[in-house]
Amino acid sequence: MEIPENIQQQLNQFQQLQQQAQAVTMQVQNVEVQIQETEKALEELKKCDENTEVFKQAGTLLIKVEYADALADMEDKLETLQLRKQTMARQEERVMKKLEEMQASIQAAMQGMGMA
Known about the structure:
Helix content is 77%, strand content 9%. The chain is mainly α. The protein has a domain of 31 residues. The protein has a two-stranded antiparallel sheet with strand order 1-2.
């Protein structure tokens, strides 16, 4: 039995949405790794004395920066990453919900045609 064009289109959209969900999940995981790395760097920085020489990477160079500036930069970076993670997590939830809705719709359409 041949799949009707409207169901085939829904299946194609479903596959595209699955790929989008995978991409968003990978982005969330990437941000989580960045958060962990930033937290670790911040933890190490806070163990240092304020007079400790601190360097910041800029491309292939290491540039000397003030301790307070480095600390503020790391805290800002962590906050930004955490906000990005929240935004991506909400996006991930929306995509997953849409996937579930599409799956139910496709299954209902196929059952209505005696295909599932």
